[in-house]
């Protein structure tokens, strides 16, 4: 299948130095493979989006010579695609409604002797797997249960019977997803233990990131996902969804993060400044440092810098995919 890569920023503000590293890496990988490079604006979490940020991001990318091969798409306009994916999971008994609040989950974990760690994952304990007990549904969750991903589950006669069929699946005590990262090497995560049944559609009606990104990548024919290492933890959940929906599995490469002065990931939340792209060569050189490229490039224009960077990237990252 021809290579297709993508950069998928959330328009919660302008690009900063860290997000440009992810954009540059995905662009370089696509160009090194002579493939397509797409931009998807991940504005599905509408309350967090900043007016005008998407336009600013696209202009920053253009300033740096990172121009997508097709017009950008916007997640906020693709709800029908996500609903179709959710309906498919419901029909197969792999999604169920949930009435729990975060406080409910925290209390359930504490009562079971597994209190929530402040900065850890709020692991869902499966409270609503077998029914809502008269409570109103707030969200939809994916069932992390053992099933044969290469054998379709029986089609349910109705949504209700699909929900009831969940009781016939065994929760996976060891749902371990093993995958290969082109930079980090072999990876593994036990989704049931580390995450639990994760959200597909939120209580506020907005689509969850995991379902939206999987549906979008499949619809756009994305073969290779190149993104920051902070998103590596999402990969196992996305692979479970890809298998459950019968979708192709893309290859993954997670790039090093740019850290702030406090040693944490550079982000808008910890004060990362918007990227000034009036001197694109300077910002590309800075991004290249994080990717281990800048010390071997001598260029007087951003176009020359990008051309040399593609060659260096090809020499490092075109090993056979696993």
UniProtKB/TrEMBL annotation:
Free-text remark on how the cofactor is bound: Binds 1 zinc ion per subunit.
Enzyme Commission number(s) of this protein: 6.1.1.-
Binding site for ATP: 268
A Gene Ontology molecular function term of the record: ligase activity
One Pfam family from the record: tRNA-synt_1c
Name of this protein: Glutamyl-Q tRNA(Asp) synthetase
Motif ('HIGH' region): 9-19
Domain of life: Bacteria
Chain span(s) of sequence motif 'KMSKS' region: 265-269
Keyword ATP-binding: yes
Domain Glutamyl/glutaminyl-tRNA synthetase class Ib catalytic, chain residue ranges per copy: 6-102, 175-273
Positions annotated to bind Zn(2+): 98, 100, 124, 128
Cofactor requirements of the protein: Zn(2+)
Family (UniProt): Belongs to the class-I aminoacyl-tRNA synthetase family. GluQ subfamily.
InterPro entries found in the cross-reference section: Glu-Q_tRNA(Asp)_Synthase (IPR022380), Glu/Gln-tRNA-synth (IPR000924), Glu/Gln-tRNA-synth_Ib_cat-dom (IPR020058), GluQ/Sye (IPR049940), Rossmann-like_a/b/a_fold (IPR014729)
Keywords, ordered alphabetically: Aminoacyl-tRNA synthetase, ATP-binding, Ligase, Metal-binding, Nucleotide-binding, Protein biosynthesis, Zinc
Function statement: Catalyzes the tRNA-independent activation of glutamate in presence of ATP and the subsequent transfer of glutamate onto a tRNA(Asp). Glutamate is transferred on the 2-amino-5-(4,5-dihydroxy-2-cyclopenten-1-yl) moiety of the queuosine in the wobble position of the QUC anticodon.
Gene: gluQRS
Record-listed L-glutamate binding positions: 6-10, 42, 209, 227
């Amino acid at each position: 299948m021809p290579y297709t890569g993508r950069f998928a920023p959330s328009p919660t503000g302008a690009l900063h130095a860290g997000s440009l590293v992810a954009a540059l890496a995905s662009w370089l990988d696509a160009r090194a493979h002579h493939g397509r490079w797409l931009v998807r604006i991940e504005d599905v979490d509408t309350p967090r989006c900043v007016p005008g940020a998407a336009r600013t991001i696209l202009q920053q990318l253009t300033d740096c010579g990172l121009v997508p091969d097709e017009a950008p798409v916007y997640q906020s306009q693709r709800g029908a695609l996500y609903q179709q994916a959710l309906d498919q999971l419901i029909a197969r008994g792999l999604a169920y409604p949930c009435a729990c609040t975060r406080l409910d989950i925290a209390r359930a974990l504490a009562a079971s002797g597994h209190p929530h760690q402040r900065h850890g994952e709020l692991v869902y304990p499966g409270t609503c797997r077998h029914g809502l007990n008269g409570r109103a549904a707030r969200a939809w969750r994916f069932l992390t249960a053992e099933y044969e991903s290469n054998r379709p589950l029986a089609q349910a006669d109705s949504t209700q019977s699909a929900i009831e069929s969940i009781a016939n699946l065994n929760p996976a005590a060891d749902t371990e997803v093993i995958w290969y990262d082109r930079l980090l090497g072999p990876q593994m995560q036990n989704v049931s233990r580390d995450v639990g049944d994760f959200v597909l559609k939120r209580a506020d009606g907005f689509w969850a990131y995991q379902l939206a990104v999987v549906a979008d990548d499949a619809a756009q024919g994305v073969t290779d996902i190149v993104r920051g290492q902070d998103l590596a933890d999402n990969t196992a959940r996305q692979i479970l969804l890809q298998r459950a929906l019968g979708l192709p599995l893309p290859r993954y490469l997670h790039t090093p993060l740019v850290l702030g002065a406090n040693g944490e990931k550079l982000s808008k939340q910890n004060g990362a400044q918007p990227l000034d792209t009036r001197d694109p060569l300077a910002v590309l050189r800075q991004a290249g440092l994080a990717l281990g490229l800048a010390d071997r490039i001598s260029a007087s224009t951003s176009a020359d810098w990008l051309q040399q960077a593609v060659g260096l990237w090809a020499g490092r990252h075109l090993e056979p995919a696993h």
